[in-house]
Specification:
The termini are far apart. The longest helix has 25 residues. This protein has 15 helices and six strands. With about 325 residues, it is of the alpha/beta class. Helix 8 crosses helix 9. About 50% of the residues lie in helices and about 15% in strands. The protein has a six-stranded mixed sheet. The structure holds zinc ion. The site of zinc ion (ZN) has 7 residues, from loops.
Length: about 325
């Protein structure tokens, strides 16, 4: 990175920490105080709800609250080896920026910084699932998420010498975490999905843009008419590619649960009986503007937000774009 950030010792420690890049980005956002907590988002939009919905204690959802003070997070920390240390941090009332600095630079504790940040990331991740997808919180499940993350980190870092810059190995039921762990930190992810009703031929395209850490950046909907479901899926991908280009993105990973569409990109010889070849060819001509592009098929449980957006789009016939804040139709449980 060729900017003043690279000389900041905190950045140096952070970017050299042996953790997955999505966790690094998350920690970076904590340090910069731009983690999109409700109180942070409220700065940009009036009337934004700012109360923490993890503990329902009436506390405002500050970044510190989510990671250190929330009753739910405290229960998660309590079942980790860092319960005492985090309890101390919590009682110190330090802000999240100082908290990151402390764990990165204090030589007595910084050997555990990677694990502590991975746990914090897991809390944040489950907080997001809870807020955006209505998932019930369960501290045991959050604990399992970070144990898996710690495991994935070790596996990935162990294998990175071999696999880095090579195409990720195809595994059954790949997860978004596996996909993002092999991408550079400045890569964006566009989730696309289409919803189609064969009785009316009405379709809805839902696109969700996030950074590599999974933080929401924007959403786009496009309502339309198509002849069949496959056409809707391929148009969704074309819309995603065009959107990424319009947004000036440089490194992008496109994620869809439409296997046939994604396969038509992966196979070098286009043997697939894919009938929307012109749409796919359009996509292929556009993607030359990206310095890195990846197409990934993931099962629907990884693309729930785009799925929700597409359904809302089809049912309500809404088209539009929402950047920087999460539109109401993604917040509400459908
Ligand atoms: Zn709370």
């Amino acid at each position: 990175m060729n900017n003043p950030q690279s000389v900041n010792p905190v950045y140096k420690s952070l970017w050299s920490l042996p953790i997955l890049s999505k966790v690094q980005i998350f920690v970076w956002k904590c340090y910069e105080y731009i983690l999109p907590a409700k109180t942070v988002l409220a700065r940009f939009s009036n009337g934004h709800d700012t109360l923490c919905s993890m503990c329902n204690s009436g506390s405002h959802e500050l970044p510190e609250h989510i990671i250190l003070h929330c009753d739910f997070s405290k229960v998660v920390w309590s079942i980790t080896p860092f319960a005492d240390a985090i309890e101390q941090d919590s009682s110190l009332n330090i802000n999240l920026k100082d908290w990151v600095i402390k764990w990165l630079t204090d030589v007595a504790i910084n050997k555990n910084a990677g694990d502590v940040f991975s746990i914090a990331w897991s809390i944040w991740k489950d907080r997001c699932y809870h807020v955006f997808q209505g998932k019930n919180l369960n501290h045991h499940l959050t604990a399992r998420l970070f144990l898996k993350l710690v495991n994935d980190t070790k596996l990935y870092l162990h294998n990175s010498d071999i696999h880095v810059n090579t195409r990720s190995v195809l595994v059954v039921d790949k997860t978004i975490d596996q996909v993002t762990s092999s991408l550079p930190i400045d890569c964006h992810v566009v989730f696309s999905d289409a919803s189609y009703d064969k009785d009316t031929n009405l379709s809805g395209i839902g696109l969700v843009l996030t950074d590599l850490a999974g933080s929401f950046i924007g959403c786009k909907l496009k309502a339309g008419n198509v002849r069949k479901a496959e056409e809707a899926e391929s148009l969704a991908l074309l819309e995603a590619v065009n959107w990424a280009k319009d947004k000036g993105l440089d490194k992008v990973c496109f994620v869809s649960d439409a296997k046939a569409v994604i396969d038509s990109f992966s196979s070098s010889n286009s043997q697939s009986h894919w009938e929307n070849k012109t749409v796919i060819d359009d996509c292929k001509s556009i993607i030359s503007c990206f310095s890195l592009v990846r197409f990934e098929f993931l099962k629907r449980n990884n693309t729930m937000l785009a799925d929700k957006a597409a359904k809302f789009c089809r049912r309500s016939r809404t088209s539009g774009e929402w950047m920087g804040y999460i539109p109401e139709f993604l917040n509400s449980t459908m």
